[in-house]
Specification:
The chain has 280 residues and is an alpha/beta fold. The protein folds into 2 domains: 2-127 and 210-278, Rossmann fold (3-Layer(aba) Sandwich); 131-201, no CATH class. The protein has 11 helices and 8 strands. It has helices at 39-45, 72-85, 98-110, 131-146, 150-160, 162-168, 185-191, 199-209, 237-245, 261-264, 266-278, and strands at 2-7, 10-17, 24-28, 50-54, 91-96, 115-121, 223-228, 250-254. Helix 2 crosses helix 3 and helix 5 crosses helix 6 (162-168). The mean pLDDT is 95.
Length: 280
């Protein structure tokens, strides 16, 4: 079920699935993304868990105020208020990419007494993305902040040409050409939505400025790190940093997989995730 919550005076879109009596999970998406990335994951888990996936302020179907605060810390505070709205005293957090960064910040610093499990899926640790993401992809974002109309042109180009789209989104997938083109159309549209022209650059700057390396050791809860070995967005070295700083974390590296294991290697991603969440 899709609903809109009012958090800090702004509308935050969320998807709710599963009985409220079930153990709660809060799902957090990455930069230039949306809550829909969790659709198949939630369908698998909703029978036994109370699943809440949100669109961060500035993304998806949530409000996108031009003067919004899109820092990692503020997005984490809003996520915690969503948990408060649903009455979650303790809950598991599953975050992808920037959402993994937000989830890790929540568990390590903001609310270590509220999180009971943490899952980081190709999550950002040091704040540094790959060279290609920081140069080629961010160039589009910087240009779009100055000339928002560039997003409309990008949508037209990326949706009309599969080869061009696969080249442009190479940072997302190990082999984008192997995925049905229409299966990730919504993701392309949400990534380059003209309404994101002001939120994405601000979020990206905060992502780059937020290094979590030195607080990983403070995470007090069971932690699972899932990473695609061919991730073209978050350097795979950051997964190893996470493991080095938090040796107790469970570590799953998926072969022949890019930044979105929930799309490219669903079975290899969902099995350890489900086992981890079910473990008491």
């Amino acid at each position: 079920m899709t609903d809109f919550l009012t958090i800090d005076g702004h509308r935050i879109a969320c998807t709710e699935a599963g009985a409220s009596a079930n153990p709660p999970i809060l799902f957090l998406h990455g930069i230039m993304s949306h809550r829909g990335v969790w659709t198949r994951t939630i369908k698998t888990l909703q029978q036994d868990f109370h699943c809440i996936a949100i669109d961060h302020l500035g993304f998806g179907d949530s409000d996108k105020p031009k003067d919004g605060d899109y820092t990692i810390a503020k997005q984490a505070e809003r996520a915690l208020k969503v948990a408060d709205h649903f009455g979650f005293k303790q809950f598991a957090i599953v975050g992808h990419s920037m959402g993994g960064q937000i989830a890790t910040y929540l568990a390590a610093s903001l609310a270590p007494n509220r999180a009971n499990k943490l899952v980081s899926v190709d999550g950002v640790v040091t704040g540094k993305l790959s060279h290609r993401a920081q140069t080629l992809n961010r160039s589009l974002i910087v240009t779009g902040e100055i000339i928002p109309a560039i997003y409309k042109l990008a949508i037209m180009l990326f949706n009309s040409s599969k080869p061009f789209s696969c080249w442009g989104f190479k940072v997302w997938f190990h082999k984008p050409e192997d995925l049905p083109f229409d299966s990730w159309k919504l993701d392309r549209d949400k990534a380059i939505d003209p309404a994101n022209a002001y939120s994405t650059p601000k979020a990206w700057r905060s992502l780059n400025a937020t290094n979590l390396t030195f607080i990983l050791k403070n995470i007090p809860v069971p932690t699972l790190v899932i990473f695609g070995e061919q991730d073209g967005t978050v350097p795979v070295e950051q997964a190893h940093i996470f493991k080095a700083e938090l040796p107790s974390a469970q570590f799953v590296m998926i072969q022949n997989c890019g930044h979105f294991p929930m799309y490219e290697k669903f079975d290899e991603y969902i099995a350890p995730l489900e086992a981890f969440l079910r473990k008491t």
